[in-house]
Amino acid sequence: LLQRYQLTVTHSWLDALGYQAWWQHYQTTMQAKGYDLIATPDWWQHKQAEGKQVGVFYFHQSTQVCGSLVYLRHDAQVTACFKTSQSIPGLTKKHRSLGALIDFVFLREILKTKPSAISLGSMRNAFSVWNSYGNLEYKLSMGYLVEPKENTAIWDTVPLDADGRVAFFGWQADHWQLFAVKATADPYHFPVARFQSDKIGFSIINY
To answer: What number of other Cβ atoms are within 10 A of residue 190's Cβ?
Structure first.
């Protein structure tokens, strides 16, 4: 796909000036899409103070930057933090978009460095309420597994969506597994095959 759509990829470690140049690109891209700005102009300084390296993958089409992914590396652990992507004709399908291609290239290239762990970022633990089932399936299909952040609070309740459904990760029998909740009279069938694997159990709870 990179060759077909004449895309090239470059990588660099960001210093203060490099981060500011990236942030200008990020600001322009996010505002054009009407998205909130999560990265801040002083984010790089905070990560440097924490002793973390900040890297970036740039994606170019011809001479124009069309996408990027900024990540952190610390003690052999790598975490994807911010991503930008623009629309490219032909790369418009949900799992065949430039954004999906960026995620794949990031994973492929970082694996070459033999990190102890790779994270594609965090998600809030209530799918169909704060996240989509598609977002969950996408990350699981790439081989990522759930791992709570340090000091993550364990809740006794979980919100339901407008249809009275939700999927969430919970702790049972000394391991994390995925639970789906719906009313007994609800005819909806959760797509079990999309989420279940030999590494992640999946249980349905009716109420």
So the answer is: 19
